[in-house]
Structures are given as structure tokens and as C-alpha cells.
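Budget justification aside, the reviewers requested a transparent look at the raw inputs and outputs of the sequence design task funded under Objective 1. We therefore reproduce one unedited record. The lines immediately below are the C-alpha cells for a 66-residue chain.
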């Protein structure tokens, strides 16, 4: 069974990813279903997404103070 994860591919902009397990593990390598681009492990993707979220969150808090 293949599970799909909705993540944006930086190469082709598709949001369908695939890996060959029923549940996501931090060590799974995520691959774009459309173009085959390797996005890295689930742990590295989560880390990048958390950093991006924190950067988006910080400027909005600074605007509220002004």
C-alpha cells in the first residue's frame, strides 16, 4: 500500500509525494510522485517546514507591536 503526503515539490510544484509504507517514519525518504525528485527524509522536511513557519510567525508578531 502506498501512502500519499501533501508536500510541495520544489522542482515541479506538484503536491503528491509517495513512499512505500503504511505509516510515516522520520527516516523515510520522500519522493515526488510526479517527477521523482527526492525531497529528503521526513525528519528533514519537518525541520524545514517548522523553520519556515517560525519565520512567518515572527514578522506578524513584530507588526502587531508597531
Amino acid at each position: 500500500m502506498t501512502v500519499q503526503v501533501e508536500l510541495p515539490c520544489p522542482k515541479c510544484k506538484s503536491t503528491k509525494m509517495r513512499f512505500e509504507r503504511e505509516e510515516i517514519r522520520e527516516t523515510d525518504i520522500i519522493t515526488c510522485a510526479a517527477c521523482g525528485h527526492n525531497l529528503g527524509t521526513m525528519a528533514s522536511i519537518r525541520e524545514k517546514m517548522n523553520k519556515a513557519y517560525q519565520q512567518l510567525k515572527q514578522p506578524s508578531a513584530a507588526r502587531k507591536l508597531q
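The helical segments are 42-65. The first strand starts at residue 3 and ends at 6. Computational costs for records of this kind are itemized in the attached budget.
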